[in-house]
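Researcher: Here's the sequence for the chain we discussed earlier.
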Amino acid sequence: MSDAHNEEHQSGIKTPKQLIAAVIAGFLVPIICIVLLVEYATNAPKVGAGSEAQTAAAIEARIQPVADQGYTLKDVNAPKQLQTGEQVYKAVCAACHTTGAANAPKLGDAGAWSARIAAGYDKVLGHALHGLNAMPAKGGNPDLDDVEVARAVVYMANQSGAKFKEPEVPAAKPASAAAPEAPTAPVAATAPAAEATAPAAAPAKVAADAGKKLYDSVCMACHTAGVAGAPKLGDKAAWADRIKQGVATLDEHAIKGFQGKGGVMPPKGGSQASDDEVKAAVEYMIAAVK
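Model: Thanks. This is the structure I predict for it:
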């Protein structure tokens, strides 16, 4: 009886190799089962070559015309898209009318705008279009349409207590019929040969004091008081970093305008001066700090 009982309780592992194999199997089998379960749970159809990527619907979506996706080509001959008053304000007017530079009435300041509003819409618009004191014509951006300037005026004034009416866009004038070409007169057989074209006249030179004249009439509005970050005439410290940029850079900023952390400069100071006159004014101001 005892021998039979002992045989029933004998282990199947009789050698060290069998023991090692059993231990390894005890680790690997659960891991393999877990991997298979995860693979089964996350198994889903994958898009790729030979699957949904080559279906008729997918191909049609890829070759769909650009025009059907909301893109449009800009017609350069189309009428100009006029900006809203708020857009003009943010792009041009905010430089002074947000900070109050050069005594510009701040947006929303009813007290500063009250006298101007009382003067009337036409008066305020005239100053905005043609300039007044430190206010350059069209805020220093001559490319603005009169309607865009008017919209900006209405936007600022109405934000400050006015009730000006939104300006209307003038109707486009019908194109006039082309005039018939005049018949060309016959050329006489004995007509003398055309004379040689006269050489083009040399551009007029800018007067020696042109820089000072432009400064006294335009530039001093900002460069005397340091309005909107403008370096004051004769202030060596304020001009030092600007002079390091080079005269060519300063000329470009003065002619084309500049807006950055250092200040705001409208193109040509908002004047109708020539490029040479603006360069002369830059040279005049640079000379004052040397």
